[in-house]
Write a structure and sequence with these properties.
The longest helix is centred in the last third of the chain and has 36 residues. This protein has a single domain, classed as Na+/H+ antiporter like fold. Helix 9 crosses helix 13. The protein is an all-alpha fold. Helices cover about 85% and strands about 0% of the residues.
């Protein structure tokens, strides 16, 4: 692929795609949606704890266990530091779980990580490249500004537009929700195309770590929700939210902010794995629910 095309996509297409995803999220939000925080505080705090507190250390542990080279380890950490993606909301909706909780968790984690990601990445670069090598450069304040421009600003604009014209926002959301999924798939496919040789060469090296992170992320979300005594639907919702990361954000950070193709290897593999595993998780929950319902019916006879 010509370098000019890669540069264009990294500097223009990916940021615009990410901003469009966040705008579509804002377009479906109103201040009333955040009542979920007060109505279900344990679920919201549990989801944020699993997403923002548990995942980065888990990525560090897996990078050590699998002895990943610096670029792959940092790529895995970037993915873990990212917020939940809007794809998690679509999966939650399809699974007939708690969509309101999913939307609130995705929004809050997206806003919080504007400030947490640059600080975590600044530390992680020094940590993973401690032995030397060509470490990517990062400006914390500039990165915060760039992330805010493609997350907070589009969300706020979408919310304002919804407040000004709810009917238009509802009509636009019908088209923008599936469009967000298309953008995600397109970004993942682009990452695969531009780094195909690197991905193929390192699939056996990076794949197991990405798979382990995704499985453990979903298990962490499920475990936290279970400990908190949440309902069946809330447990499934939090497992999905913690397991499905914003792969578009990870690509943006890897290719646009840090400008290092090798950092995109692990997030690209994870982006494919997380969709497949989310489907398996939903099927497993439905199977358990069907078995429970059958057992109750049998006991009543």
């Amino acid at each position: 692929m010509p370098p000019e095309v890669v540069t264009l996509v990294n500097t223009v297409i990916v940021p615009i795609g990410l901003a469009a995803i966040m705008f579509s999220m804002g377009l479906s939000l109103s201040l009333g949606d955040f009542r979920e925080v007060g109505r279900n505080p344990r679920a919201v705090l549990g989801g944020l704890f699993g997403q923002l507190v548990c995942l980065p250390p888990l990525a560090l542990l897996l990078a050590f266990v699998f002895q990943l080279p610096p670029a792959m380890a940092l790529g895995l950490f970037i993915l873990a530091a990212c917020p939940a993606g809007t794809t998690s909301n679509a999966v939650t909706y399809a699974a007939k779980a708690n969509v309101a909780l999913a939307v609130v968790l995705t929004t809050l984690s997206s806003l919080i990580t504007v400030f947490s990601i640059p600080l975590l990445l600044s530390w992680a670069i020094d940590h993973f490249y401690v032995a030397g090598g060509e470490a990517p450069t990062l400006s914390v304040t500039r990165t915060m500004t760039q992330i805010a421009q493609i997350t907070i600003v589009p969300v706020v604009v979408g919310m304002l537009l919804r407040r000004a014209s709810p009917s238009f926002a509802d009509r636009a959301s019908v088209w923008l929700r599936p469009a967000s999924l298309v953008v995600l798939v397109a970004v993942i496919l682009f990452s695969v195309l531009v780094s195909l040789e690197l991905v193929v060469e390192n699939l056996l090296r990076a794949g197991p770590a990405a798979l382990a992170l995704n499985i453990l992320a979903m298990a962490t979300g499920l475990g936290v929700a279970t400990v908190l005594g949440l309902s069946h639907n809330d447990r499934l919702t939090i497992a999905i939210e913690v397991g499905i990361q914003n792969a578009t954000m990870a690509t943006f950070l890897s290719l646009t902010i840090l400008k290092d193709l090798s950092l995109a290897i692990t997030p690209t593999i994870y982006g494919v794995i997380m969709i497949a595993n989310a489907g398996l998780l939903v099927r497993w929950f439905r199977w358990r629910q069907a078995r429970r319902a059958a057992a109750v019916e049998a006991a009543a006879e």
